[in-house]
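>> received
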Amino acid sequence: MNDSMTEHKQQTVSVVLQALQLITLLIGVASVFLMVGRKDAQITSNSGEIGELRDIAMDLVRTSVEATSTNRNQDRQLDELRSRLMTLESQR
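>> returned
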């Protein structure tokens, strides 16, 4: 009788240990999937931010080109005005 109780306790301990190993394994697998999901979300977020930065850089380049073009037009207009003033002064 004592041997059967000891054997039953050993089986119970064995079943409990196997259950704990299974739970540990499941937690490990779940944490791996969680980490992969987080990294995937971070990559998606970074891709969106990179796209935004690209759009901002393009807008800055466009603005810079327009400003340069505007400056050239203003310089040309100032040169024309200076030329007209010189003509008027020379006629005096």
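>> The first helix runs from residue 2 to 91.
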